[in-house]
Inverse folding.
C-alpha cells in the first residue's frame, strides 16, 4: 500500500500548447492544475500524492518525480491550445483523458492535511469532496464551468453544476470565469472564496466581507497555471495558521513568480516566495 501523503491533488494532468499575442505555437508543455499544485506543495517540503488520468505520452515520472501517483489509464492526455492576447486567455480543447472515480483513490489517502481538487474537463463528480476527510479542502472549479462543441472552442457556463454534500473550505476561481456566475452560488459552496484578477490582484471573501489583495509586480512570460499556484500557496499558508489577508499576499507573490517562467518551471518554493516578499 502506498504511503499516505499530506497533500492530495485530484484532476487531469495535461499538455498546453500556448500561442501568445499571435506568435508561433509552443511545443506540448506538460501542465494541469493538479500538476502545478503538486509541484508547488512538494517544493514546500510536503509529502504529495496525485490521482489523475493520462495517456502513455505524458512524462509523469519525469515531471512528478518524488510524488506518489495513482493513474487511471486513458487513450489520450487532456490537451489544450491556449491563445493569450494581452493576458486574456481563449482555449480550444484538443484531447481529453478519462473519468476519475472514488475507486481510484487509495484508502489511506482519504484523510490528508490538504485536499486540492482541480478538474479540467468534468473528469470528477462534483461530490468528490465527500470521498475525503481532509483538514483543509480547496477547489479550483474551472473544469466544471467549461463547455465545448465539435470545434473544441471552450466557453464558460453561467452556473456551476449541482453540488451535494459538505462545503469546501476554499474555492479559487478567476474573474473571467465568473463574469456570469452568481456570487451567492460561490458563497454557498465555499467558506472562503478567492477570485484572482490577473494584474489587478485578487479579492477574497471571508467572514462576510471582501478583502483586496494587490498584485505583486512581475515580468510575465507564461500565465498558464498561475491561478493553480495562487490557490496552492494560499491553502499552504492557511494550513500553517497564517491569517487570510497574509495568506493572500503569500499567494499573490507565488503567482508572480510562477508567470516569470515557462510552464511548471515557475512552481515556486517557500524560499523563493519569502525572498521575493523580503
Amino acid at each position: 500500500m502506498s504511503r499516505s501523503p499530506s497533500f492530495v491533488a485530484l484532476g487531469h494532468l495535461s499538455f498546453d500548447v500556448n500561442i501568445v499575442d499571435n506568435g508561433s505555437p509552443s511545443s506540448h508543455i506538460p501542465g494541469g492544475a493538479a500538476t502545478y499544485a503538486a509541484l508547488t506543495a512538494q517544493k514546500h517540503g510536503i509529502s504529495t500524492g496525485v490521482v489523475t488520468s493520462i495517456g502513455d505520452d505524458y512524462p509523469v515520472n519525469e515531471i512528478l518525480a518524488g510524488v506518489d501517483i495513482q493513474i487511471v489509464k486513458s487513450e489520450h492526455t487532456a490537451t489544450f491550445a491556449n491563445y493569450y492576447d494581452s493576458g486574456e486567455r481563449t482555449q480550444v480543447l484538443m484531447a481529453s483523458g478519462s473519468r476519475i472515480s472514488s475507486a481510484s483513490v487509495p484508502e489511506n489517502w482519504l484523510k490528508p492535511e490538504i485536499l486540492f481538487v482541480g478538474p479540467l474537463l468534468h473528469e470528477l463528480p462534483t461530490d468528490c469532496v465527500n470521498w475525503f476527510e481532509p483538514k483543509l479542502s480547496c477547489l479550483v472549479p474551472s473544469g466544471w464551468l467549461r463547455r465545448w462543441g465539435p470545434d473544441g472552442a471552450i466557453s464558460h457556463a453561467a452556473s456551476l453544476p449541482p453540488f451535494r454534500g459538505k462545503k469546501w473550505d476554499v474555492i479559487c476561481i478567476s474573474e473571467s470565469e465568473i463574469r456570469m456566475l452568481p456570487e451567492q452560488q460561490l458563497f454557498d459552496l465555499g467558506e472562503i472564496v478567492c477570485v484572482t484578477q490577473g494584474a489587478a490582484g485578487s479579492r477574497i471573501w471571508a467572514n462576510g466581507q471582501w478583502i483586496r489583495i494587490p498584485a505583486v509586480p512581475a515580468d510575465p512570460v507564461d500565465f498558464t497555471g498561475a491561478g493553480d499556484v495562487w490557490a496552492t500557496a494560499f491553502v499552504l499558508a492557511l494550513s500553517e495558521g497564517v491569517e487570510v489577508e497574509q495568506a493572500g499576499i503569500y499567494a499573490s507573490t507565488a503567482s508572480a513568480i510562477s508567470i516569470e517562467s515557462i510552464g511548471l518551471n515557475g512552481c515556486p518554493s517557500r524560499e523563493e516566495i519569502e525572498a521575493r516578499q523580503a
Observations:
- The chain has a mean pLDDT of 92.
